[in-house]
Amino acid sequence: MSAACRADQRPNRTRRGRAALLTAVAAFLLSACGSGGAGNTDFVAGKNGVDTAAKGHRTAIPDLSGKTIDGKQLDVRDFKGKVVVVNVWGSLCGPCRAEAANFERVYLDTKDQGVQFVGINTRDSSTSPALAFEKEHGVTYPSLYDPTGKLMLRFKKGTLNPQLIPSTLIIDREGKVAARTLQALSEDNLRKMLNSVLAEK
Hints:
By secondary structure, the protein is of the alpha/beta class. The protein has helices spanning about 5-35, 95-110, 125-135, 150-155, 185-200; strands at about 50, 65, 75, 85-90, 115-120, 145, 165-170, 175-180.
């Protein structure tokens, strides 16, 4: 084999080695991002799309307070002692529209059982489309107005934090996040998610 051929093969081996190293680094970074920093979470990812944290391994909610879309003041921490369903939504979100009636039905059925529903409206540049959404879908529970998503950013990374629209959290009676889903919920799945926390003593 000529010196020229051997010289041509060396760069190819070097390129293949670099490509393999970059692939390994990318896979590591993706796995760390996907799990909130592998091994640093205190929750279990469910096969049904609902992630849960056992009692004793839950994180307290951050400050979720401010003005509602109808101009009133609301602080989610005032509901400590109740099970709270927090739903992050936007008026232009198709899945949010699909689940809105489910949330209202479950809210009406459970509000006398120590359950409070709170929405967090985000990405709407004014409250007008949010109010129209509530009217159209018959939503009667309050929603905080959070156009820039600052309330979502208050949750610690690696916890059961809301990340998408819609996101739904179940807050236990101690004000800690017990369950989360990052997808639209049917009425049946919402009830299952809520009932497991509601049954806790």
